[in-house]
Write a structure and sequence with these properties.
This is RND family efflux transporter MFP subunit. Belongs to the membrane fusion protein (MFP) (TC 8.A.1) family. Residues 242-311 form the CusB-like beta-barrel domain. This protein is α+β, with helices and mostly antiparallel strands. The protein has four helices and 26 strands. Strands 4-13-16-15-14-17 form a six-stranded antiparallel beta barrel. Helix 2 (127-161) runs antiparallel to helix 3.
Length: 404
C-alpha cells in the first residue's frame, strides 16, 4: 500500500492512494505474454526439431559444393613470338660520287621514285673535261697521220732496196718508225678512252634498279669522292623488319618462319618471313636480330617502328581458361579433383597466353579434372561434387596466340 502526504485543514495528513491498474492494461500484458510463449514454441519446433534430424544416424554432416571441372587434354599450339623493331630496306644502296666530282648541274630524281639500273640520278659540270677529251681526240688524229706517213715511207723503201738504192739497215729503221707511229696511235686512243670514261663517271647513276629513299644533293653543290652519300636506294624496293629478340626466342627459330608485321599507327598486318637470324648476340642487351623480309608497300617506311608476331614452331600442351588459374606467393597453380572427389593443389608453369586460353607448359598431363572457376573459394582437401564440362577436340590449333 502507498501513502501520499496531503494538507487537510492546515495540518499534514497521510492519505492511502489506489494503485490498482485499469482492467484493459492487465489484459494487454496477458496477451503479450501469450504471444511470446507461442513464438518460443514455434521456434523450438522449427530449430530444435531440425537439429535432432541432422544428428540422426546416416544424415549428412555438411553441405558439399558442386564445382565445374574440365579435362583439358593436349592441343597443338603454335609457338608465337612477339617482337618489336624497325623497318628498313632489305638491301640499302648508298650512292655517292664515283669520279672526280665537281659542281652538280641537275638532279633528276626525287625520293619515292623508281629508277632502272644505270639511270642517271644527277649530273656534274664537265666543261673542262669535255675540252680535255677534244684535245685527246685531236692527238689520236695526229698519231694516225704520223702512222700513215711512216707506212708510206716504208713501202717506198721496200721498192728501192731491191734496186740497191737503200740498204737493208735503212729499211729496218723505217719499219721501226712505222711501228712507233702505230704505238703512238694506240696510246692516244687509250688516253682518249680514259678521258671519256672519266667523263662518264661524272654522271651519278643508279647501281641497280630500285626505289630512291633519300636525296642529299642539290644543283650548284660541289661534290667529290669524299663528299659522302648523295642518294640512298632500296634494291628492288625490298623491305624488311629488324626484330630484336631475346636469346631464348632466337633458339630454334628457323629461317622461313612465318611472320606478321604491323607498323605503328596502322591496324593492318603485312605478311613476311624470316630470311636471316642473327648469328651473334649483343653482349650489352643480350638480344639478337631476326630479319623479316617484306614485299614493297608504301605504308612500310624505312626507319619506322613496328611490331611483329613470328610463328616459330609448334608444341603439344594442355590449355586452360584464365578462370582456372590461381596464384599466390609460391607461384601459379590450379585445383585438381582427385579420384576421391577431393580438391588437390597442383603447381603449374604458364606458357603462351591468348585471349581465349592459357597454355600450360608444365605441371599437367591433360587428363586431370581441373576446377574451371571458383577456385578461390576452395581449400586443399575439401570434398566437392564435380560436374564435368565438355572440352574441344585435342587436335584444335589456336589461331591467335601471343607470347606471355
Amino acid at each position: 500500500m502507498n501513502y501520499e502526504a496531503r494538507t487537510i485543514g492546515g495540518e499534514p495528513q497521510q492519505v492511502l492512494t489506489d494503485q490498482t491498474p485499469p482492467s484493459h492494461t492487465r489484459r494487454n500484458i496477458i496477451i503479450a505474454v501469450v504471444v511470446i510463449l507461442v513464438a518460443l514454441a514455434i521456434a523450438w519446433f522449427a530449430f530444435g526439431s531440425g537439429k535432432k534430424d541432422a544428428a540422426a544416424p546416416g544424415a549428412p554432416t555438411e553441405q558439399i559444393p558442386s564445382v565445374t571441372v574440365i579435362v583439358p587434354g593436349r592441343q597443338t599450339v603454335d609457338r608465337v613470338i612477339a617482337a618489336t623493331g624497325t623497318l628498313a630496306a632489305r638491301r640499302e644502296m648508298p650512292v655517292g660520287v664515283a669520279g672526280e666530282g665537281g659542281m652538280i648541274t641537275r638532279v633528276l630524281v626525287e625520293p619515292g621514285q623508281w629508277v632502272a639500273a644505270g639511270q642517271v640520278l644527277a649530273t656534274v659540270d664537265r666543261s673542262v673535261q669535255t675540252e680535255t677529251a677534244a684535245s685527246l681526240s685531236a692527238s689520236v688524229t695526229v698519231a694516225r697521220s704520223d702512222e700513215t706517213i711512216a707506212q708510206a715511207e716504208l713501202d717506198r723503201a721496200q721498192q728501192l732496196v731491191d734496186r740497191g738504192f737503200i740498204s737493208k739497215a735503212d729499211l729496218q729503221r723505217k719499219a721501226a718508225t712505222r711501228d712507233a707511229a702505230a704505238a703512238r696511235v694506240k696510246v692516244a686512243q687509250a688516253s682518249l678512252g680514259e678521258a671519256r670514261a672519266r667523263n662518264g663517271r661524272l654522271d651519278i647513276r643508279a647501281p641497280a634498279a630500285g626505289l630512291v629513299l633519300t636525296r642529299g644533293v642539290e644543283p650548284g653543290q660541289i661534290v667529290s669522292s669524299g663528299t659522302g652519300v648523295l642518294f640512298r636506294m632500296a634494291m628492288g624496293g625490298q623491305m624488311e623488319m629488324r626484330a630484336a629478340l631475346a636469346e631464348s626466342d632466337l633458339l630454334g627459330l628457323p629461317v622461313g618462319a612465318r611472320a606478321t608485321v604491323t607498323p605503328v599507327g596502322s591496324a593492318k598486318g603485312y605478311k613476311g618471313e624470316v630470311w636471316q637470324v642473327s648469328p651473334v648476340i649483343d653482349p650489352q642487351t643480350r638480344q639478337g636480330v631476326a630479319r623479316i623480309a617484306l614485299a614493297y608497300d608504301p605504308a612500310l617506311r624505312p626507319g619506322g617502328f613496328a611490331a611483329a608476331s613470328i610463328v616459330g614452331g609448334a608444341t603439344v600442351a594442355p590449355q586452360l581458361p584464365d578462370s582456372a588459374l590461381q596464384s599466390d606467393d609460391k607461384g601459379s597453380f590450379v585445383y585438381v579433383v582427385g579420384p576421391d572427389d577431393k580438391v588437390v593443389r597442383r603447381d603449374v608453369k604458364i606458357g603462351q597466353v591468348s585471349d581465349s586460353a592459357v597454355t600450360i607448359a608444365g605441371g599437367l598431363q591433360g587428363n586431370e579434372r581441373v576446377v574451371q572457376s571458383a577456385g578461390g573459394f576452395l581449400a586443399p582437401g575439401q570434398k566437392v561434387k564435380p560436374v564435368t564440362k565438355a572440352t574441344t577436340s585435342a587436335t584444335t590449333t589456336p589461331t591467335s596466340i601471343k607470347r606471355g
